[in-house]
Amino acid sequence: MRDFTITAYKSLLTSLKDAGYPFVTFSEYLRNKPERAIMLRHDVDDRKLHSLEFARIQHEMGITGTYYFRMVPESFDEDVIREIHQMGHEIGYHYEDMDFAKGDPDKAIRLFEEHLEKLRKVVPVSTICMHGSPRSKYDNKDVWKHYDYKKYQVIGEPYFDIDFRKVFYLTDTGRQWDGHKVSVRDKVPVYFDLSFHTTFDITEFIKNNKFPNIAMFNFHPQRWTDNYFLWIWDKGVQYIKNLIKFLIIKLR
């Protein structure tokens, strides 16, 4: 069976539901700090309609997630954002303003303010999350070395406001769940002695009642499709991207 398909995604959600996990948005987690919960985070980097499909699937299953939108045409779409919000999902800003500003923090914060306001004119926003911008030499999180996002009525940013000693973090970066070797910036401290390669590995582990009590999944929905030809294309493109990112990491 092929991984990174809508079928595989639904199977993962079903296994989590069957195991009795409650689903919370990132902002709900920050406010309530549950002892057992799943956070479904989605970085809407490209193919925004894939994220809309994810949101609809979750809505049909009675599940909520968090969706982070960039300020680029491939991601930002007011109609898509509104529809996802109206289904009960959380919307956040997927910021990359240090990259836009070529590393100038003063220019970056002005862009951040402008972009956050633009998104807030569409839906409420209380959390943000950096975009990795792997090909850029600038780390978008570095703007917070100079400024404080909480002054903008932002209650959290996953890379700063989650205690990863308590929260197990899984990301599909690199089109694999153990892609840390080809991840330029989507990395967190590792405190859990767990590693998975495929979605099916995760699903089986959940069914065996071994999965941690609290976890955040980070999905990039543009990678997930049941369309065979698009799936083959994405697999080839991601292979090349992973080689490039591996070289970037080595050179840095």
Tell me, rounded to a whole number, the average pLDDT: 92
Terminal CA distance: 37 Å
Q: Percent of residues in helical segments? A: 25-40%
Structural class: alpha/beta
* Rg: 17 Å
Q: Could you describe the largest sheet, including whether it forms a barrel? A: 7 strands, parallel
Number of domains: 1
Number of helices: 9
- Low-confidence parts, pLDDT < 50 over ≥5 residues? none
Structural summary, described in words:
Helix content is 39%, strand content 13%. The protein has helices at residues 6-18, 26-32, 48-60, 78-86, 97-100, 105-120, 158-161, 199-207, 228-251, and strands spanning 23-24, 37-44, 66-69, 90-95, 128-130, 168-171, 214-219. Strands 1, 2, 3, 4, 5, 6 and 7 form a seven-stranded parallel β-sheet that branches.
Topology at a glance:
Elements lengths: L5 H13 L4 E2 L1 H7 L4 E8 L3 H13 L5 E4 L8 H9 L3 E6 L1 H4 L4 H16 L7 E3 L27 H4 L6 E4 L27 H9 L6 E6 L8 H24 L1
Parallel strand pairs: 1-2, 2-3, 2-7, 3-4, 4-5, 6-7
Task: Name its key features.
252 residues
Give a brief outline of the structure.
With 252 residues, the protein is an alpha/beta fold.
